[in-house]
DNA sequence: CTCTTGACCCGAA
DNA sequence: CTTCGGGCCAAGA
C-alpha cells in the first residue's frame, strides 16, 4: 500500500473520476484510506508534472466550491473546464454534489 | 529544533 | 447564509 508514493496514488484515483463529475479532496483522501490527509490531496495535485494529463479540475472542496480565489486565473480555468463538461454552478459559485458528486461504484 | 503555510474538513454558534 | 475554533500534516525557512 505504502509502496506507491502518495502523489501517485492521488493522481491514479483522480484519473478515475468520470467526465461531468466531481470529487472532494477529503473524499479522495478517504478513498485512499488516509482520511486525515485531505489537504495533501491538494498538494499532490499542485505537484502534478506538466507532462501528466489528469482531470485535476474535477476535484473541489467539501462544499462543492473551487478552492482558488474567485477571480484568479486558476479559478476561471478550472471552472471553465468543468462547465465545458457539463458541471453546473449555482449563482453563488457552488456545485450541487448530490447531482454532480462522484460515487465510485455508481 | 520551532514557526509558518497551505488546491482541506467539520462541528458549533 | 456566515464566522470561529480546532484538527490535520508535509515541506520549507
Account of the protein in words:
Residues 6-87 form the Methylated-DNA-[protein]-cysteine S-methyltransferase DNA binding domain. This is Methylated-DNA--[protein]-cysteine S-methyltransferase. One of its GO terms (biological process) is DNA repair. GO terms for molecular function: methylated-DNA-[protein]-cysteine S-methyltransferase activity. By secondary structure, this protein is mainly α. The chain has one domain (6-95): Arc Repressor Mutant, subunit A (Orthogonal Bundle), CATH 1.10.10.10. It is built from five helices and two strands. It has a two-stranded parallel sheet. Helix 1 packs across helix 3. It is globular and about 45 Å long. The structure holds a DNA duplex (13 and 13 nucleotides).
Q: Which tags fit this structure?
A:
single chain; 106 residues; DNA-binding; Arc Repressor Mutant, subunit A; mainly alpha; two-stranded parallel sheet; 39% helix
Brief overview:
This protein has about 110 residues and is mainly α. The chain has helices at about 5-15, 25-30, 40-45, 75-85, 95-100, and strands spanning about 25, 60. It has one domain: Winged helix-like DNA-binding domain superfamily/Winged helix DNA-binding domain (Arc Repressor Mutant, subunit A, Orthogonal Bundle).
Amino acid at each position: 500500500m505504502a509502496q506507491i508514493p502518495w502523489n501517485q496514488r492521488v493522481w491514479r484515483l483522480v484519473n478515475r473520476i468520470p467526465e461531468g463529475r466531481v470529487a472532494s479532496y477529503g473524499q479522495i483522501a478517504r478513498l485512499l484510506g488516509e482520511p486525515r490527509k485531505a489537504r495533501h490531496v491538494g498538494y499532490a495535485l499542485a505537484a502534478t508534472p506538466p507532462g501528466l494529463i489528469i482531470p485535476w479540475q474535477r476535484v473541489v472542496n467539501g462544499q462543492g466550491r473551487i478552492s482558488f480565489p474567485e477571480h484568479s486565473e486558476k479559478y476561471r480555468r478550472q471552472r471553465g473546464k468543468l462547465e465545458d463538461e457539463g458541471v453546473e454552478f449555482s449563482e453563488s459559485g457552488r456545485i450541487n454534489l448530490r447531482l454532480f458528486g462522484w460515487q465510485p461504484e455508481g
